[in-house]
Each structure stands twice: as structure tokens, then as C-alpha cells.
Amino acid sequence: MVRRIILHWSAGKYYPSNFEKQYYHYLIDAEGNIHTGFYKPEDNDNCSDGKYAPHTGGGNTGSVGVCLCGMCGYRSPSFHGDYPITKIQFEACMKFVAELCKKYNLEITKDTVLTHYEFGQANVKTSSFGKIDITFIPPYSWVGKNEAGSFIRSKVRWYKENL
Ligand SMILES: [Zn+2]
């Protein structure tokens, strides 16, 4: 059963590679197109068979992994490399996550729609602790690292209500 959606950036380039498609269920390119990964969300209902998308260490079971392609070379908000997430990409992702919330009948809370960073902060003994996706949103660069998750949830809520 799908219980939550975890958002990532790939730390790669603007279009998904086959390597990246092993890790995420959905990948959004720089133009806002949605690509499907090699596993379906339902494959993460049970991760004990090894056939699932391993996007969030310690938190893969019941979790859909949605990935923004980009952020290769990112170091800090003042040095974000050659592949910063674009506005059209980010908005397409928010709308798509809203559609997933409808499809899977998920309320939008910090337990059901969250970033990999937030998962790590809440689960410090997992390998997700210390992950930095998503702590910076290039098209909304004023959003602080600890507000990025709630900013994302407010965006997703808006799209869910206005779809
Ligand atoms: Zn991640």
C-alpha cells in the first residue's frame, strides 16, 4: 500500500539516465516531462524481495520516490552548479505529486509528503540521515533549508485543490 511520497533531486543532469531510473518511480526532467522508472510504486509495498526502487534508505516500504532531475555539482545555495532545478520542472513536479495524492487518497502532511532530507532528520539512524535533497529550491531561492518541505506541501495542496 502506498503510504507516502518522498521527494528527491537526482544530483545528476537534467534528463534521467537508466541508472537513475532504478532508484525512483518517477523522474521529472528540466522541461517538466514525467518519466517512469523501472519499478512501480506498488513494487515498494514489500521490499523484502529485492525488487523495488531503493530511493530512501530506511524508508522504502510503502514509499513512492519522485525525483527532480538535476543539481549535479550543487554545493550550496550560492554555488548550485550547472543543473539547478527549473521553475517549470518544479511546478510540474508539485502538480504531479498532487495527482498522486488523489490517486492514492493521501492527505498532505509531513508524514505523507516529505523530502528525503526531512525523512533523514526524522530518522537519524538510517542512511538517509544527512541527505540534502531537498534543502534548496532554485526557482524559490528565498525558501530556507528547513522550510523547503512545508513550502512543497503548500504547493502540492494548492494543486490538489485546483486540479
Ligand atoms: Zn534522495
Task: Please describe the structure with a list of short key phrases separated by commas or semicolons.
alpha/beta; binds zinc ion; globular; 5-stranded mixed β-sheet; 163 residues; 5 strands; single chain; Lysozyme-like; 26% helix
Write the layout of secondary structure elements.
Blueprint: E1 4-9, H1 18-21, E2 26-28, E3 34-36, E4 63-68, H2 87-103, E5 113-115, H3 116-122, H4 148-162
Parallel strand pairs: 1-4, 1-5, 2-4
Antiparallel strand pairs: 2-3
Bound molecules: zinc ion.
Describe what you observe in this structure:
The chain has a single domain (4-162), classed as Lysozyme-like (3-Layer(aba) Sandwich), CATH 3.40.80.10. The chain has 4 helices and 5 strands, in the order E-H-E-E-E-H-E-H-H. It has helices at residues 18-21, 87-103, 116-122, 148-162, and strands at 4-9, 26-28, 34-36, 63-68, 113-115. A hairpin with a 5-residue loop joins strand 2 (26-28) and strand 3. It binds zinc ion. Residues 8, 116, 131, 133 line the site of zinc ion.
Query: Which ligands does the model contain, each kind named once?
Result: zinc ion
Strand ordering within the main sheet: 3-2-4-1-5
Number of domains: 1
Report strand %. 5-15%
Low-pLDDT segments, ≥5 res: none
| Mean pLDDT, all residues | 97
Compute the separation of the termini in Å: 24 Å
Q: What is the overall silhouette?
A: globular
Q: Share of helix among residues?
A: 25-40%
H/E series: EHEEEHEHH
Which class best fits the helix and strand makeup? alpha/beta
Count of helical stretches = 4
CATH-assigned fold name: Lysozyme-like
Could you give a short account of the major beta sheet?
5 strands, mixed
CATH class: Alpha Beta
Question: How many individual β-strands?
Answer: 5
CATH architecture: 3-Layer(aba) Sandwich
Instruction: Supply Rg.
Output: 14 Å
